[in-house]
Amino acid sequence: MGVSTEKVKDVDDGMRLNRWFLKYYPGLSLGRFQKLLRTKQIKVDGRKAEASLKLAAGQEIRIPPLDEEKNTGKKEEGVSAKDASFITSLVIYKDDNILVLNKPSGLAVQGGTKTTRHVDGMLDALRFGLDERPRLVHRIDKNTSGLLVLARTRKYADMLTKAFREHQLPKTYLALVIGCPGKIEGVIDAPLEKEGEKVRVYADGKKAVTTYRVLDRAGEKFALVEACPRTGRTHQIRAHMEYLGTPIAGDDKYFGPERRRFSTIADKLHLHAYKIDLSVIYNRKKIITAPVPEYFKQSLEAVGMEFKEQK
């Protein structure tokens, strides 16, 4: 292959040129990279560039023939080229202090027994030019899809951790549930206590409150519910939906008396962390939404419902 041109993606906005090449061409040695710069074989927007140049989304980078360097599959920062490409593709928001991912169902946030591939193990690929790796400030279940907020600096890690702990960052989830709640909207105030790998409603458990609203329904068979946790208990929405008598479709832990599968909808957990309000962090209105997974949308369509995503 000959010379090519690549546009800087939105997620790479602000990344230094040398980091950009390290990310996309992991087999390119530092010495050769510097020689290519000196001989003007690498250019940005048609001009000679320095290794430390901060890139802007939309800029065009002239790439000399580097196919072997691009496809070596070597690791960068302990993350394979394949995983680095995957985790960066999940980024839906980035600024100097915060990253937001749209995590797919099935990807764990942190490692554990029998879990070797997880977000925490790929964070080095999300530095985007910073010396610090981003930090996890909250978690969502492995099989829950949607918003995962990361802090890019220690200062914002402390701010976000405190804000999550004090429930200052309202979150909205979407759930496809089996059956339909008796009321169109309401408050589930049912204390939860851990019992093995699950949590259960117990009178003496820890306070747990979830507000909900039915957005659409398919008779009495299914409903699309908007759920907002007011406390931060493990598996809170899943346990509360089961307690309400309307377990979440595809849930393998909280599903009433027996596991129910349906030929018309995906056999995955239909719980999506859709929206988060970060206004308290930015001191101005700042709401971020994560596109709904394709399987979730197809399941809604299969049962005769739809969800119009916010722009």
Describe it for me?
- The protein is elongated.
- With 311 residues, the chain is of the alpha+beta class.
- It has helices at residues 17-24, 30-38, 67-70, 81-89, 154-165, 236-243, 279-282, 294-302, and strands spanning 4-7, 43-44, 47-48, 60-63, 91-94, 98-103, 135-136, 145-151, 171-178, 185-189, 192-195, 198-201, 209-218, 222-229, 271-277, 287-289.
- Strands 5, 6, 7, 8, 9, 10, 13, 14, 15 and 16 form a 10-stranded mixed β-sheet that branches. The chain has a 4-stranded antiparallel β-sheet with strand order 1-4-2-3, with no helix packed on it.
- A hairpin with an 8-residue loop joins strand 7 (135-136) and strand 8.
- The protein folds into 3 domains: 4-70, Roll (Structural Genomics Hypothetical 15.5 Kd Protein In mrcA-pckA Intergenic Region, Chain A), CATH 3.10.290; 81-165, Pseudouridine synthase, CATH 3.30.2350; 171-302, Pseudouridine synthase (2-Layer Sandwich), CATH 3.30.2350.
- Helix content is 20%, strand content 26%.
- The protein is built from 8 helices and 16 strands.
- The two termini are 40 Å apart.
Q: Please state the average pLDDT score.
A: 89
Largest sheet: 10 strands, mixed
As a percent range, the share of strand residues is: 25-35%
**Which stretches are low in confidence, meaning pLDDT under 50 for 5 or more residues running?**
71-76
